[in-house]
Write a sequence for this structure.
């Protein structure tokens, strides 16, 4: 397909524009590009502020004008409710996916009791992780534009290899909301390998391990690289293990060894100070043998030997993951051509030693571990920009393919720019009790509402056995072959009822139309996401009303009169909120009704609402 770039300020189509590579990290984010003369990847350091932008978004006073990065980080302990960190953990996830981890966050994730994507409450506003990630991306984009003195509208963004479709789509949406056309979502280990110069030549065959220990997460991936294609053979890790835990180990050691508990008790600024000292100690011990600091008159020392002893169990856990990853890939250490280190925490000498020992070869730590992923993303961007003749570009699908879900929303199944042939699928369910038919409408395009996209086909899956809403499981699979023919099939798993169509998505579509559709998706990104959020809020609210009313009708005899009248009031409030079309008002009423009904809903019937509401509904 033609390569289009849109200048957002003029609306004109540009050629030969800079495409940046972005590492959107859990703890830190960076943007990099290929220097046009040096042809080397470089992390952008705007105004000497450093290359690293902490992935923290702070809303001063709970208002709606956020600040991002180092300036936001200082509010983590003093204003936790207005300061969002680690939002990457929430991307593309529902409240159910988070489980007990929702309570560990300093800010409020609302419990809408659904499979819908999570929302975060800040003051009177509700944000999706997509919007919050978009704030981080916007900051990176601004820094790039400022440093490079040119508009930046295109990017390659990295995600962990284990991210699922929904998390990848959420990352794309965040990019679009930040005014970036996301040319490709690339796996972080793939980007790391590219940065280390692996996989650039088509006749190269290599097997590598990528060990990535960041601030809050750890993952290890085994990659096979063949003819410029990166295959993930296995991944393993722990999404709750990283540098923060090393800091925490030091913190706890000091707190108990030097009787600091009275000073720290209910004192966020003292806690913050000690946490920062712990991180400082850890960093210093990566290059020196001792550390000492003063904490309110108490001297806190830490030797490297003591530090190693404290973090040894944590490092051992990462090695267990490495062993598992290698076993899953059915390989031994001798099969690996290289072991690549990624992530700030791999600077800890004990980590380097443990990894090198386990893989029986010196790990490669020759690149700056904070920057590796962003540098690799910049190289991938350069390849997609067609600036590297030696690397082959594969056929891709120019527009997203998806289906319509509740409220007329587009649910993308195969994202644009996916290499073809490709296959993807998702599971759906019914929204009404006893529903026996499911309409599958297939669309093409980048907009959030299907009415703005191009309809390709529609068919009914009939003969679903009558069951309560949410119980049937319908798999919808998209299979796009090398000739660009799309087969869409829907299968109800219990009865094995199936139905399929074949379509040629590119039929009758000109390059100009594709360009126009891409341009529209960027210029309408804000209003589209806003419309999507209102529809999602309405869907959650309507389902909640349906369930609560059904619950009260069924279990009224177990409730006190007061509970019933409170619930009725909450229901009325939600109904009124629904008439406003304002997502914050609706979600606030949902949040309140849920808080109100949870205690007795749990008491009366553990299975009730949550079970019946599981699963995503089509129509
Ligand atoms: P992520 O990819 O999860 O966003 P990073 O790769 O940026 O995270 O890693 C951040 C972590 O690296 C932090 O916990 C930080 O303390 C740690 N780190 C940075 N520099 C050093 C160092 N010199 N020694 C030890 N740890 C470090
Ligand atoms: Mg990282």
């Amino acid at each position: 397909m033609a390569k289009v770039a849109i200048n957002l300020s003029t609306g004109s189509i540009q050629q030969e524009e800079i495409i940046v590579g972005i590492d959107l990290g859990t703890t830190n984010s960076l943007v990099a590009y290929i220097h046009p003369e040096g042809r080397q990847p470089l992390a952008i350091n705007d105004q000497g502020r450093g290359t690293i932008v902490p992935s923290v978004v702070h809303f001063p006073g709970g208002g709606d004008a956020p600040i991002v990065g180092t300036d936001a980080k200082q509010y983590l302990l003093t204003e936790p409710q207005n300061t969002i960190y680690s939002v990457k953990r929430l991307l593309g996830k529902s409240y159910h996916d988070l489980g007990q981890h929702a309570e560990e966050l300093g800010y409020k994730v609302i419990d809408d009791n659904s499979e819908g994507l999570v929302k975060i409450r800040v003051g009177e506003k509700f944000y999706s992780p997509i919007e919050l990630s978009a704030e981080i991306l916007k900051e990176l984009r601004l820094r790039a534009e400022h440093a490079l003195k040119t508009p930046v509208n295109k990017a390659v963004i990295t995600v962990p290899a284990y991210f699922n479709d929904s998390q990848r789509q959420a990352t794309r949406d965040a990019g679009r909301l930040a005014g970036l056309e996301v040319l490709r979502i690339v796996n972080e280990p793939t980007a790391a390998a590219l940065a280390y110069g692996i996989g650039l030549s088509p006749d190269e065959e290599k097997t590598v391990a990528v060990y990535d220990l960041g601030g809050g997460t750890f993952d290890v991936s085994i990659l096979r690289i063949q003819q410029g294609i990166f295959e993930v053979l296995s991944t393993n890790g722990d999404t709750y293990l990283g540098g923060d835990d090393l800091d925490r180990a030091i913190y706890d050691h000091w707190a108990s060894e030097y009787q600091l508990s009275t000073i720290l008790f209910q004192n966020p600024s003292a806690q913050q100070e000690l946490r920062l000292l712990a991180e400082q100690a850890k960093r210093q011990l990566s290059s020196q043998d001792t550390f000492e600091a003063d904490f309110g008159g108490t001297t806190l020392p830490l030797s490297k030997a003591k530090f190693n002893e404290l973090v040894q169990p944590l490092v051992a856990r990462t090695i267990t993951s490495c062993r598992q990853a290698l076993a899953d890939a059915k390989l031994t250490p001798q099969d690996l051509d290289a072991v690549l280190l990624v992530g700030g925490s791999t600077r800890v000498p004990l980590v380097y030693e443990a990894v090198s020992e386990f893989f029986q070869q010196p790990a490669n730590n020759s690149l700056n571990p904070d920057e590796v992923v962003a540098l690799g993303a910049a190289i991938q961007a350069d390849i997609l920009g067609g600036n590297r003749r030696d690397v082959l570009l594969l056929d891709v699908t120019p527009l997203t393919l998806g289906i319509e879900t509740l409220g007329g929303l587009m649910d993308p199944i195969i994202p644009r720019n996916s290499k073809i042939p490709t296959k993807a699928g998702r599971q759906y369910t019914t929204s009404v009790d006893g529903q026996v038919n499911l309409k599958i409408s297939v669309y093409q395009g980048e907009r959030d509402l299907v009415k703005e996209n191009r309809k390709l086909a529609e068919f009914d899956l009939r003969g679903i056995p009558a069951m309560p809403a949410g119980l049937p499981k319908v798999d919808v699979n998209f299979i796009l072959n090398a000739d660009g023919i799309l087969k869409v099939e829907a299968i109800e798993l219990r009865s094995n009822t199936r139905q399929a169509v074949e379509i040629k998505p590119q039929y009758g579509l000109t390059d100009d139309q594709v360009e126009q559709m891409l341009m529209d998706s960027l210029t309408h990104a804000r209003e589209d996401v806003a419309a999507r959020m209102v529809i999602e809020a309405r869907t959650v609210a309507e389902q909640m009303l349906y369930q609560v009313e059904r619950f009260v009708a069924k279990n009224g005899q177990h409730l006190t009169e007061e509970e019933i009248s409170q619930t009725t009031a909450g229901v009325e409030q939600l109904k009124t909120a629904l008439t406003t079309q304002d997502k914050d008002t609706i979600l606030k009423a949902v949040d309140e009704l849920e808080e109100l009904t949870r205690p007795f809903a749990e008491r009366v019937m553990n299975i009730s609402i949550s079970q019946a509401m599981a699963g995503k509904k089509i129509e």
Q: What stands out?
A: The chain has four domains: 1-196+367-393, 200-363, 401-508, 527-613. The pocket of adenosine-5'-diphosphate (ligand 1) is lined by residues 25-28, 214-217, 242-244, 279, 282-283, 286, 343-345, 347-348, 370 (CB under 6 Å).
